Amino acid sequence: MANEIQRTLVLFKPDAVQRGVVGEILSRFERVGLKIVATKMISPDEDHYRKHYEDIGKMISRRGEHAFDVTMKLMVSGPVIAIVFEGVEAIALVRKLVGATEPKSADPGTIRGDYSHMSFGYADSQEKGIPNLIHASGDEADAEQEIAHWFAESEIYEYEKPSDKFIR
Which of 34, 68, 69, 122 might form a disulfide with 87, Cβ 3.0–4.6 angstroms? Predict the structure, then answer.
């Protein structure tokens, strides 16, 4: 719901981890006032990603089996860093910071606009998943399901930060 404190899932995909830009990108989320309430590095198997991308995200239904297969190949190519951010209207804020899914179309100033550039057409011609650095929950329902899929309740922390009075 708008106008409230929300939690959202962000995955730093294998291309972000392997390029060594996680710290730079992470600082952008923190600078805007989002609070990390859960984080871990993990190398999920294909079953974990199938639940994430199809059972929750309906990727095959929306984009087809081929798009799912090339995304799967990219995602299992290395570890990811999963983070739950918390903040005022965090889901929309994170989506705005991340930018358009296709890096070529992402505005300058967004994470994808500043750190990636590939088009869907080029990725398709190379039979590869689009290296767009980040996954961000699309809406409240996705965020709730994705967080529960990636984190146990015991891995999510409640704590106060001195800056909360300025950003909440």
Answer: 34
